[in-house]
Amino acid sequence: MYDLVAGSKTVKSSYLLSKKSALELFPMLRGDKLVGAIVYYDGQQDDARMNLAIALTATRHGATVANHVTVTGLSKSANETGKQVLSRVHVRDELTGKQWSIPTKCVINATGPFTDSIRKMDDPTVKEICSPSSGVHIVLPGYYSPEQMGLLDPSTSDGRVIFFLPWQRQTIAGTTDLPCKVTHNPKPTEDEITFILSEVKNYLNPDVEVRRGDVMSAWSGIRPLVSDPNKGDTQSLARNHIVHVSESNLVTIAGGKWTTYRSMAEETIDAAVKACNLQPTSKSQTDGLLIEGAHGWTPTMYIRLVQDFGLDCEVAQHLAKSYGDRAFAVAKLAALTGKRWPIIGIKLHPEFPYIDAEIRYGVREYAMSAIDMIARRLRLAFLNVQAAEEALPYIIKIMGEELNWSEDEKAKQLKSATEFLQNEMGQTVNRASRDKIPINLTKDEIQLYIRRFQLIDKDRKGYVSINDIRRGLKLLGLKFEDSDIDELKRDVDAFHNGLLELADYLQVSNVTVFNIIIITGRGRKRCI
Q: One MF term from GO for this chain (predicted)?
């Protein structure tokens, strides 16, 4: 069906795989019930950068873009025929609190899950046309799927679709599909995360242990599905879009999907031109129009970034893929590393290719908060919530330099971004699942382990790594056998991907090799 619909524009043709070939290409799969597989090709994008690139392209063609601005009301006045039509939009700057109104010839409502709230500003009695649905996704380590292949099953245990796909060198898995209320701050739940993990487990061989601690990030998105009055469950709702014009000329575009966004936009503008008697100077130009960053991009462009600027190869590939030909403008903002190689580009976190220059460039792309940066310019919050938290102080420092933030503002940004990671990116539910494990230690034992944790956490980071534990054991004059270290790594990795906070440390101390009697270098037995 994909090949038929795509016609000559298909990426590659689909094909069948035998059981043997499927396991060769996707060795993580269970083989006991596998008969074969169908391989089809689909596109993948960074939706946040895509959305931003579209906005930047609009500014290049004369649009004015305002970030963090909320519509608070709509006003009407009589047109030349005496009909009451929309004539002003009232807005509020959420950062400063400033309010003003914008005169308009036409208002287009393209607000996704908030569609009906805008429609009710136009007509409080209007019938709702959107049925919001919550979809939770989780991010797992990259070893859950091959680099160039994922898995999709349209028929899970309860009839919903399950997939896990390679994404940004990790694995993204989902999804749930449940009716929900519209909110600015959707949150994933433990039940939804557990459902996804249990479904993923059904497809993987026993060598891949599906662990709750492997969830590096989790979030809930709201899909603005168009209601079908003949069906009551959101799983059956169509993803197709509708364009509606109200009596007062509010043009609403609702539903739809990324793959048809240009067609949706063209149809919406055509409806606006007709309804509001606009006089365009040309017909639609969206067909073939390159968006920001596409003009000078080539598949090997990253090599020039490495050679011309002295960037790390992985960083250069990331910049070229994310920013297109704007990657050169980003690279010009990069700081010297002080190393022989790479020459420029200080990483925000050692495990990811994001660099300092992206923060400075992000401010030029309308980023006004730390949350904007970690979630809507970079994807760090979506890839690894712990890494995002660790990178926050440096990110806020750079943004503070660019935006002249006071110390109070920096503290405010840190607090709000930390709460965002905890509530909307799954950090709280991750910790709650960990806390269900009982700690069977006495009060004196707990105090002992707290002192040892503080000894190991010499930098007072609030967490320790395997290497920190190694150094701490050496300081105590204790030795681990290699097998003990391997077991410790497995237990540590079941929590925050190799990082332990105090509560994690107590959990591990309670159930693992921390309670093993080991022999020190002097032949004495100690319990650590």
A: calcium ion binding
